[in-house]
């Protein structure tokens, strides 16, 4: 199946949608929006993975396996243990391929806002002090910078691999293309779904 762009119609009604992208690309926002637009269930992968004190939940992989058995869903394509399971059940992959400077600006602003507001994230966790960007080699800002190109490598592997024939892959570069896809192919897919129910 060819790589689709922001104006290309979706080849089938999306029922199990993954959103790929580096940290700060807007995966959760997009997955939630896709779910609302198409009437799918949505679970944020971070909420399944992170336990108290940022420790991984031992139930994470079992929770992912239960989630993918649902008839229709949207979520983020992330976490090494979850990615193969999610991909095996998905029919659509939306790739947010934003420039590095866009992603870094977004993740920096988001991290600062969450820290200053002491915003509770998952299972009681909050962003660590901002100074940890200099002391923690796995800090989200550092991770976003060094992992920026990895999503592209993973998506290209998908296109070359066993899932490429059945999986619709949409590549969106920048907010303008995101908006174009939302108001065009995604909206029309939702309208076709409503018509099929009538």
UniProtKB/TrEMBL annotation:
InterPro entries: Cytidylate_Kinase-2 (IPR052922), P-loop_NTPase (IPR027417). This is AAA family ATPase. It comes from Saccharothrix hoggarensis.
